[in-house]
Specification:
The complex is a heterodimer of chains A (about 450) and B (about 325). Chain A is α/β, with parallel strands linked by helices and about 450 residues long. In chain A, about 45% of the residues lie in helices and about 10% in strands. Chain A has two domains: about 220 residues, Periplasmic binding protein-like II (D-Maltodextrin-Binding Protein, domain 2, 3-Layer(aba) Sandwich); about 210 residues, Periplasmic binding protein-like II (D-Maltodextrin-Binding Protein, domain 2, 3-Layer(aba) Sandwich), CATH 3.40.190. Chain A has a five-stranded mixed sheet. In chain A, strand 1, helix 2 and strand 2 form a beta-alpha-beta unit. The longest helix of chain A is centred in the C-terminal third of the chain and has 20 residues. Chain B is mainly alpha-helical and about 325 residues long. Chain B is globular. The chains are: A alpha/beta (about 450), B mainly alpha (about 325).
Chain lengths: ~450, ~325
């Protein structure tokens, strides 16, 4: 069979088309003296983050001569983007990850382990706050991420409301906290409806629910995860979940409407609108409050059970970590960038801009960071925080457990009586769901 | 497929070839013989890369244990044969139980949404098939839900059904005083009914549009003859309208049924990543396994099962209900 020139041309055009359609595009990795960096969205908007990060990256370029191509990825997209990069190999050189993802992403084998020379290149383990450094990967393995921004939960309260109710001090124990919340739950305009609640939460927020189950569970002496798998239905964990949902079920200090809240901003909005007097949220909530010009709040440690059957844990060691992709063409440059961003000087700058906690211990000596709220956050992070279970199933655990607790809040809000047995059943169902899906 | 046949000169569209002096020896090498292939090639490549290859990959993935941990080398994810199907279909397990509950809920949801949308669409089509002042305006208004982007519409509905500040509770409780307390719509048992309401609101204009087009093909003299014979409006509807638009009706029901069974956007936009138990349909459940729990193998297995269910149901429907001989073209 003869093949004409036109047929060849036609075939090559088709092949070109196929290639164009199926090609994954050029590697986004480094070329020459340029690194690509995916940053997580920390501020009120992506644009704000670009403005904050660019000067820090310019200083890096000045020091090393390496250009950095920056992309700020919104939270809702970040994990998807990371997994896509892991599967396709079209990855940035350096990227931010949520620190609770560290163990899962470590298992993919896509990131450079920080040990030996690599760890030294980013300042060594001694540079970092211990509880934050512990979030870098699974226990017993070299971490594949190091902390970049530290975050912790704290109790935010409205001092004006406290003063109006004649309360002088923020509560320190759980019992005091519930009493205070009861005193602050009021019908301020005498129309027969409560319009100010003592405490605000987001019943449908899976992350907050699972974090609080962890924190209160540790106080009760429990764990969310053991060697054999999830332990959500242990006596301690059931007690912890009951403690949390009883704020709405039996104490009535939480607005039942908040069973619908789930996006991480609604409880903060209620606090800013003075619909609730206290919330337990991470320090980054201050950027949302600042964006609404709200500063009528003070910060205290998270209340702890007294007597305390377990550990005085007040927060998860929350925060953002930074990793280097194995596929990078310039590992040395990528490690230099990590070193630069985690250096004490840059940490002071970044924590001031993003309202986060420095992960470099030396930064805390800086005078600009000396204030009461910073002390409180630092104390919680360094002395009263533990990482969420460092397991590959962590993300799934947060979803399944958080949704189960959200379901209990929904039942309470829609008028069901919830007993301890119901909570145990919901926790057992969540365990079964975890087991079945893995 | 007809495209694999030996190309003949007749296969080339008349307008696509220059007039040839009829020489038989060049029959298989006629200049421009490749043109039809060249023209369908982009479509074929797109169809392959957008539909066929991903579907085949999805079937392959359903036999693997592809999770976030194995995604880096996804082609070498452990091959687990029918393990994902067995786990997904075991009614004794939490997973299988959730799947079957979702399946039954999705069937009930589909029947309700398609039934209500069809009834509304038919009523509106019949009403607007007669001439009266303002008919054009009403026709346009009726199509608004279908013209609005589903994302905008569903988010607006979510605002309206908000328990504390939503418009629905404001009207029911404060303005009309029909209820004493503001009910929850987006959590608990009511979530299912919200899903049905929003889906019907979104879908019925499609039924209206299709059925109106079908009604307009019925000759007016048939109705005139029936009226002269003394047939009532209801008799005319059941004995003339319905039989004459039967083919259109059956296709509309099939298409709406398939769309509704696969509905993902509306529950996702109303409830987020995880739907309340009462409103968990099968597509959001698959999404949850694949993109919330990152168990792609299990999610793919459930997708394949869904595909099989839909193919079997559609084949039975087409065979039993659609008029014979309508598939020739």
């Amino acid at each position: 069979m003869k093949i004409s020139a036109r047929a060849v041309l036609s075939a090559s055009t088709a092949l070109g088309l196929v290639a164009a359609l199926t090609a994954c595009g050029p590697d986004e990795g480094s070329e020459g003296d340029t690194l690509t960096y995916w940053a997580s969205n920390q501020g009120a908007s992506v644009e704000e983050d670009l403005e904050v990060l660019q000067p820090a990256l310019d200083r890096f370029t000045e020091e090393t001569g390496i250009e950095v191509e920056l992309e700020v990825v919104p939270w809702s997209e970040l994990y998807n983007r990371v997994l896509t990069a892991v599967s396709s190999g079209n990855s940035p050189d350096v990227l931010n990850i949520g620190n609770t993802w560290a163990a899962s992403l470590q298992e993919t084998g896509a990131f450079v382990p920080f040990e030996g020379a690599e760890l030294e290149a980013v300042g060594g383990e001694e540079r970092f706050v211990t509880s934050s450094f512990a979030t870098g990967g699974a226990e017993g393995q070299p971490p594949t991420s190091v902390p970049l921004y530290g975050l912790s939960y704290a109790l935010f309260y409205n001092p004006t409301m406290f003063e109006e109710a004649g309360i002088e001090e923020p509560p320190a124990t759980w019992e005091e906290f519930v009493d205070t919340a009861n005193e602050l739950t009021r019908d301020t305009d005498d129309d027969g409806e409560i319009d100010q609640y003592g405490f605000g939460l987001e019943g449908g927020n899976e992350r907050q629910n699972s974090h609080m189950a962890f924190i209160l569970g540790r106080q009760q002496g429990g764990h969310l995860w053991a060697e054999q798998g999830p332990t959500f239905s242990s006596d301690e964990q059931v007690a912890a979940v009951k403690q949390w949902v009883d704020l709405m079920a039996t104490e009535d200090v939480v607005d039942p409407s908040s069973a619908e809240f789930s996006d991480g901003t609604q409880a903060i909005s209620d606090f800013v609108d003075e619909r609730s007097a206290m919330i337990i949220v991470q320090g980054s909530a201050r950027t949302t409050m600042a964006a609404r010009d709200f500063d009528d709040y003070e910060i205290a440690e998270v209340p702890v059970l007294d007597p305390l059957p377990g550990e005085p844990v007040q927060s998860i060691a929350a925060g953002i970590n930074i990793s280097v992709f194995n596929d990078t063409d310039d590992q040395e440059g990528a490690l230099q960038l990590v070193e630069h961003l985690t250096s004490p000087e840059e940490q002071v700058y970044l924590s001031q801009e993003f309202q986060t906690l420095p992960v470099a211990t030396e930064s805390y000596d800086n005078e600009d960071l000396q204030d009461e709220s910073m002390d409180t956050f630092q104390r919680i992070l360094s002395e009263h925080s533990e990482p969420m279970p460092l397991i590959p199933e962590e993300g799934q655990m947060e979803t399944v457990l958080g949704a189960a607790i959200g379901g209990i809040f929904a039942d309470i809000a829609t008028g069901s009586e919830i007993t301890e047995a119901d909570i145990r059943q919901a926790m057992e169902d969540a365990e079964a769901e975890m087991d079945a899906a893995n | 497929m007809s495209f694999t046949e030996e190309p003949r000169s007749g296969a080339v569209p008349e307008s696509g070839s220059a007039p040839e002096s009829g020489s038989g020896r060049k029959r298989s090498r006629r200049p421009g013989w490749f043109l039809p292939y060249g023209m369908i090639l982009p479509a074929a490549v797109l169809e392959l890369s957008i539909h066929i290859i991903p579907m085949l990959l999805g079937i392959y993935i359903s036999f693997t244990s592809l999770t976030q941990l194995t995604i880096r080398r996804w082609t070498t994810a452990p091959f687990v044969w029918f393990d994902n199907f067995v786990r997904g279909l075991d009614p004794g397990s939490a997973l299988g139980n959730a799947l079957f509950e979702s399946l039954i809920r999705t069937i009930v949801y589909t029947v309700l949404v398609v039934g209500l949308s069809w009834a509304l669409g038919m009523a509106a089509a019949v009403a607007l098939n007669t001439k009266f002042r303002g008919r054009g305006v009403l026709r346009t208004l009726f199509l608004v839900p279908y013209a609005l982007p589903v994302y905008v519409a569903a988010i607006l509905w979510a605002f309206m059904f908000n328990q504390r500040d939503g418009m629905v509770n404001r009207v029911l409780v404060q303005d009309l005083g029909l209820l004493d307390e503001r009910p929850f719509w987006l959590i608990g048992e009511n979530a299912f009914w919200v899903l049905v309401i929003v889906s019907v609101w979104r879908l019925w204009p499609f039924a209206f549009l299709m059925l109106l087009a079908a009604l307009q093909s019925i000759p007016a003299d048939v109705y005139e003859a029936a009226a002269i014979d003394g047939a009532s409006t209801w008799k005319r509807f059941t004995n003339i309208t319905l039989p004459m638009i039967r083919p259109a009706n059956l296709v509309v029901l099939l298409v709406m049924g398939l769309w509704t069974f696969n509905e993902f956007n509306i529950p996702y936009l109303l409830f987020g990543d995880t739907s309340p138990e009462s409103a968990r349909l099968i597509s959001p459940l698959i999404y949850e396994h694949s993109f919330v729990n990152w168990n792609f193998g299990l999610g793919a297995a459930m997708s394949v099962m869904l595909l099989v269910v839909l193919i079997v149901a559609s084949a039975m429907y087409v065979r039993m209900v659609l008029p014979k001989g309508s598939g020739n073209d």
